[in-house]
Design goal:
Layout lengths: L3 H10 L1 H8 L10 H20 L5 H17 L3 E2 L2 E2 L5 H15 L9 E9 L5 E2 L8 E14 L4 E11 L12 H14 L5 E8 L5 E7 H26 L31 H25 L5 E3 L2 E3 L13 H11 L4 H7 L4 H11 L4 H11 L19
Parallel strand pairs: 6-7
Antiparallel strand pairs: 1-2, 3-4, 3-5, 5-6, 7-8, 9-10
Helix pairs in contact: 1-2, 1-6, 3-4, 3-5, 4-5, 6-7, 11-12
The structure holds iron/sulfur cluster (SF4).
């Protein structure tokens, strides 16, 4: 049985990660907790709007968030019928803050919507009850609603699928993942006959940005979703075939960065040719990143010490300009008979300074700010050593 998480593990990390997932290997998942809390609060706010058939007020949003946080840190979440341990208060509060900030700006559906809706399908993509033993693929939609849309080019009934993300880098590339494609396939199969199209939305709860695309069934949308369905079918088949040789193959490389199993992964790359060494470095970088995440959480209150070594936070001293530093500088400059052009020539502009001045000049237009910063700056290349994902070729 597959789900978006397993397909994502295979594509973003490697097929061996799916083996680890299926055999319940310990994974470093602490950093998912904030996202879990945010999802929990947003689902509760959505349900509240549906029941009350009204937009939630700021006070209601705050009360719902408080109630959910209390439940998460005292009892823990129940997911797919399994009780999870109580959540760390810091994670629950951080997730609730993200949810509240987004909820206050978002129009909430008061009818025709579902939150945390589960869908399951059999081998022939026939719909099954969510807990059916013979399910082949299942997924949960954060939010699904149905709206009537009337535009110049297209009009009709749209299903709007919303996926919430709490990873900082979430951008429009999320619309290309198997997860969001699978969501469209599920809604198309189950609800498609009463629809004219599907809108997929991905919300980055950290930045507040929403990425969306509309897929009208005619022309083109039906064919596109059918293609995604066959892509997912083939991918699941390929992952099944890999198990015929025992464990699925490991693919050490850039996928190790952010892989939740990198700490316990036994994929070895010990040869000394350059490609093997590069693979080994990628895997070490993945382990290093997970160790840092785990140890940052573990040492938030106090550092770990052993054998004359300290791992954790260390206070470092540096200096930062005081508020009013520019005025003080200007006074000192003029006292020494300096003029404006002399001072400007002495200042070394930084990109942060350019952005800050552009923001003051064009407070209401991000495009104008970016255009000005582009006009005042020049492209520059430099070399940085590390492990990077290869850029996707563009057409
Ligand atoms: S650490 Fe690397 S090799 Fe191991 S499962 Fe994750 S992606 Fe695969």
């Amino acid at each position: 049985m597959y789900r978006p998480t397993t397909l994502r593990l295979a594509s973003a990390h490697c097929p061996r990660a799916v083996d680890f997932y299926e055999s319940n290997q310990a994974a470093f998942r602490d950093h998912f907790q904030v996202g879990i809390a945010a999802h929990d609060v947003l689902a509760a706010i959505g349900e509240h709007a549906l029941t009350a058939m009204l937009q939630p007020t700021e006070q209601e949003i705050a009360e719902i968030a408080e109630r959910q946080v209390r439940s998460l840190i005292t009892r823990g979440r129940s997911f797919e019928g399994r009780a999870e341990p109580p959540m760390r208060a810091e994670d629950a509060f951080e997730g609730a803050e993200l949810a509240k900030r987004y909820a206050a700006t978002e129009p909430w559906p008061t009818a025709d919507a579902w939150f945390e809706a589960g869908y399951a399908f059999g081998a022939e993509w026939q719909r099954l009850p969510y807990n059916a033993v013979e399910r082949r693929f299942r997924l949960i939609l954060d939010r699904l609603e149905f709206v009537e849309e009337s535009g110049e080019d297209y009009a009709g009934r749209l299903a709007v699928i919303t996926e919430y993300k709490t990873a900082w880098p979430t951008d429009e590339s999320e619309l290309e993942t198997l997860q969001t494609k699978a969501q469209a396939v599920a809604v198309w199969l189950v609800h498609g006959s009463g629809l004219d199209g599907i809108r997929r939305r991905v919300v980055n709860l950290r930045t507040g940005k929403t990425f969306a695309d509309d897929l009208w069934f005619e022309p083109g949308g039906n064919a596109q979703i059918a293609e995604w369905q066959s892509e997912i079918t083939d991918y699941m088949q390929a992952l099944d075939t890999m198990t015929e040789y025992g464990r699925r193959p490991a693919r050490p490389g850039v996928g190790c960065l952010g892989c939740p199993y990198s700490l316990g992964c036994d994929a070895k790359s010990i040869e000394t040719d350059h490609i093997s060494m590069a693979k080994r470095l990628a895997k070490l970088e993945g382990e290093r990143a997970q160790l840092i995440k785990a140890l940052k959480a573990a040492t938030a209150e106090s550092a770990i010490t052993f054998d004359g070594t300290t791992v954790g936070y260390q206070v470092t001293a540096s200096r930062t300009p005081k508020p009013g530093a520019l005025t003080l500088m200007w006074l000192a400059w003029t006292a020494a008979n300096g003029d404006v052009s002399g001072l400007l020539a002495a200042l070394k502009p930084t990109m942060a300074m350019l952005s800050s001045v552009a923001k003051k000049l064009y407070p209401d237009s991000k495009e104008d700010q970016e255009a000005k910063v582009a006009e005042w700056s020049a492209a520059k290349t430099s070399k940085e050593f590390g492990v990077f994902a290869q850029p996707t070729p563009t057409e």
